[in-house]
Design brief:
This protein has about 400 residues and is of the alpha/beta class. The chain has 2 domains: about 1-180, no CATH class; about 190-375, Rossmann fold (3-Layer(aba) Sandwich), CATH 3.40.50. Helices cover about 60% and strands about 10% of the residues. It has helices at about 1-60, 65-75, 90-110, 120-150, 155-180, 190-200, 240-250, 285-295, 320, 325-335, 365-395; strands spanning about 205, 210-220, 220-230, 250-260, 270-275, 300-310, 345-350. Strand 2 and strand 3 form a beta hairpin. Helix 1 packs parallel to helix 5, helix 3 (about 90-110) crosses helix 4 (about 120-150) and helix 4 (about 120-150) runs antiparallel to helix 5 (about 155-180). It is elongated. The two termini are about 50 Å apart.
Length: about 400
């Protein structure tokens, strides 16, 4: 009889547990996911704070509460996209907003770091921009964590949980990017500017505007005009307008753009590809200027891209990206050799010029910084491998 009683009670308990499980399963799942989301939100917030401190140290070694509050408040700065229901004139609108954004950044950095030279101020602006992006990522993740707490929505919780690995990867890259850009180190995206400076050699550098430089020389028996952002401070320049101005004034045979490009997973970082079109990223204003003048003048548009991951573009330049230089030069020489039209060839080294000067002599310093960072990255990788091996052994022991 005792056995039958135990069996009945066991069935009753099982049924009760099953009912409880049905009613509370969603809440249990949300609680579990929220625990992980909370940890990720805290991680991103701590990274955002570190990025903020990196910028503060670059501005001043002795930061006070007023400076901290100024930087903290500026991290909330935003730009509202213009109306695009009627696409006519959208490029001019976007360009106007971008110029206003640049002016605001310059004014703020000039106010908080008045004793710093223009190149260092440019680096602070770039570092501040990366810190701002990380701050926004942390804010968005925190927003969804609090929203899930309020609504107890398992669907929303699972959607955010699935994005966490990518979000955390981007957050870590932005933190390293803040450090690199604030210190004026070459990053993955500087490869286009690096190549342009290398080609320039000892040619005379002409400042076209506050952010863009031009050099003219004979290269492979052709008259070439090299366009890049002004370095070694972190800038992206105004290549679109500069190229348009040159094409309207002079006889141009071809426009060649060299830039970093997003790779697909499975593709090797630093692999080089050729194509046609204008390889200029960003919001599209510079790209539009080049395309417009190319169509008007019927100019060939050749492009060379160096592939890398989204996070690799803003991190200190990797060895695989640095080693792509000979491949790019071979591709460039081939496309110049194919040029049969009469006129000058414009070579645009697209991208951020952080840590990259304007000629071959100045990039010797860049090479030294790149090699130092490559060495540091190798040491970090070794430490990670040792840690992973230790954890794997401890699991089996």
């Amino acid at each position: 009889m005792a056995g039958i009683g135990d069996s009945v009670w066991g069935q009753v308990i099982s049924i009760i547990m099953f009912i409880v499980f049905i009613f509370f399963y969603q809440r249990i799942m949300v609680t579990q996911i929220l625990f992980k989301l909370e940890k990720s939100a805290e991680l991103l917030e701590s990274m955002s704070t570190k990025a903020e401190m990196i910028v503060l140290k670059k501005i001043s070694k002795k930061s006070n509460s007023k400076l901290k509050n100024s930087v903290k408040n500026f991290l909330e700065f935003f730009v509202i996209s213009p109306v695009d229901m009627d696409p006519y004139g959208i490029i001019k609108k976007m360009e106007h907003l971008v110029n206003l954004e640049k002016e605001r950044f310059k004014y703020f950095v000039g106010r908080v770091a008045p004793d710093v030279n223009s190149e260092e101020q440019a680096n602070i602006m770039m570092g501040l921009s990366a810190a701002m992006s990380l701050y926004q990522v942390a804010k968005v993740v925190r927003h969804f964590v609090e929203l899930i707490k309020k609504t107890k929505s398992i669907n929303l919780a699972m959607v955010i949980q699935m994005q966490l690995p990518l979000i955390e990867m981007i957050g870590k890259a932005l933190l390293r990017g803040t450090e690199a850009l604030s210190n004026g180190w070459p990053v993955g995206d500087t490869i286009g500017a690096f190549i342009a400076a290398d080609i320039t050699g000892d040619a005379k550098i002409i400042d076209v505007d506050d952010e863009t430089v031009v050099a003219r020389k004979k290269y492979k028996n052709k008259d070439v005009i090299i366009v890049k952002a002004k370095g070694p401070g972190g800038r992206t320049g105004n290549p679109g307008k500069v190229v348009e101005s040159i094409c309207n004034k002079e006889k141009v045979a071809k426009i060649i753009t060299i830039d970093a490009a997003l790779k697909l997973e499975g593709e090797k970082t630093g692999s080089v590809a050729e194509g046609v079109g204008v390889a200029i990223g960003g919001i599209g204003t510079d790209k539009s200027y080049v395309e417009e003048v190319a169509v008007k003048k019927k100019l060939p548009l050749d492009t060379i891209i160096i592939k890398m991951g989204q996070e690799e573009a803003i991190m200190p330049m990797k060895k695989s990206i640095y080693d792509s230089l000979p491949k790019v030069m071979n591709a460039l020489n081939e496309t110049i050799a194919r040029t049969k039209e009469k006129g000058k060839i414009i070579i645009v080294g697209v991208g951020n010029t952080s840590g990259v000067g304007n000629d071959r002599k100045s990039i010797e310093k860049s090479k030294k910084i790149i090699n130092e960072n490559i060495k540091k990255m190798k040491e970090l990788e070794k430490k990670k491998k040792k840690r992973f091996s230790f954890l794997s052994l401890s699991e089996w022991s």
